[in-house]
Design goal:
By secondary structure, the chain is an alpha/beta fold. It is elongated, with a radius of gyration of 23 Å. The relative contact order is 0.13.
């Protein structure tokens, strides 16, 4: 199967094994700790007052309602309640008093300083990596022949001598593919991806992933990303009119962990592109040059 392996996959594997791959990756996914999130004084005063008054259940209700700040401890029921709308959350809380008592006891046991420290703690680095990828796109590709556009609809106006690229919200990319290109999703949310580029007459949609550890949700993320590439390749073969291709921009442990590498190798054959985001610029330029040839 290795003789059929996509060349971009092979280049990525060789880079990871023989070079300073992780150091290079810092350009896209920096390792700096995000800043803390200081609470507004009025909110901090509320927390102090409720804690000192031993109104711990009211304190839990307040902490769960803080949209831009985490609950002071990682707790599955707190996470569940935080994802409910305000009105629905009140109803659920009123029907499940034992959960609130348990959360109140756990929160009170932290002590006031640890509660505030937990709420103000920095965002999880892993949860910011998707945003870092999009920031890198908007920074890296501001040079000819690339044209970073601010709206996916501008891709329709892309000139033949440029490569247009958009890395806004996943939802806006999906909306463009469905409503402007007229493609039907094979499943809900399928077109919610990280980046889309137009090279000559073909649209290239990319899903970016940084996997730091094996197992758990990382298994699912890898499987979903590889499935995206396979399904997009099937669509490209049977589609008439719009030409669209899906690529996977996978980085991290996948290139060092044999079980993950084997899964990639099974998928990344022929024209199915699974590679590091570090090769995205080279890949788009190569595609541009290939499509610029008079006979293809």
């Amino acid at each position: 199967m290795l003789d059929r392996l996509n060349p971009w996959t092979l280049k990525t594997w060789e880079l990871a094994q023989k070079s300073n791959y992780l150091d290079k990756l810092l350009e896209i996914y920096p390792a700096e700790l995000p800043p803390e999130r200081p609470l507004p004084n009025n909110v901090k005063n509320q927390i102090v007052r409720l804690y000192q008054s031993e109104k711990y259940e009211d304190l839990v209700t307040l902490l769960i309602s803080l949209k831009d700040y985490p609950f002071p401890i990682e707790h599955p029921y707190a996470a569940l309640l935080r994802h409910l709308g305000d009105s629905n959350r009140k109803k659920v809380i009123s029907c499940n008093p034992q959960i609130i008592r348990i959360l109140a006891e756990a929160t009170a046991s932290l002590g006031l300083d640890n509660i505030i420290r937990g709420v103000e703690r920095p965002k999880d680095i892993n949860r910011m990596l998707g945003a870092k990828f999009k920031e890198w796109i908007n920074r890296k590709f501001r040079k000819e022949p690339f044209n970073v556009v601010n709206n996916p609809n501008q891709l329709l106006e892309c000139r033949s001598n440029e490569i247009c690229i958009y890395a806004g919200s996943d939802e806006s990319i999906a909306d463009f593919i469905k409503n402007r290109l007229g493609l039907k999703e094979p499943e809900q949310g399928f077109f919610n991806r990280d980046v889309i580029a137009k090279v000559k007459d073909i649209y290239i949609v990319g899903e970016a992933r940084f996997l730091s550890t094996p197992g758990g949700s990382q298994n699912r993320d890898l499987g979903n990303t590889l499935n995206f590439v396979e399904k997009m390749e099937e669509m490209l073969r049977v589609m008439k009119g719009v030409k669209i291709k899906g690529i996977a921009l996978i980085d991290g442990i996948v290139w060092y962990y044999k079980k993950y590498t084997d899964r990639v190798i099974k998928v990344a054959v022929g024209d199915k592109v699974v590679m590091s985001a570090l090769f995205l610029e080279e890949y788009l330029l190569d595609t541009f040059e290939e499509l610029s040839q008079p006979f293809r």
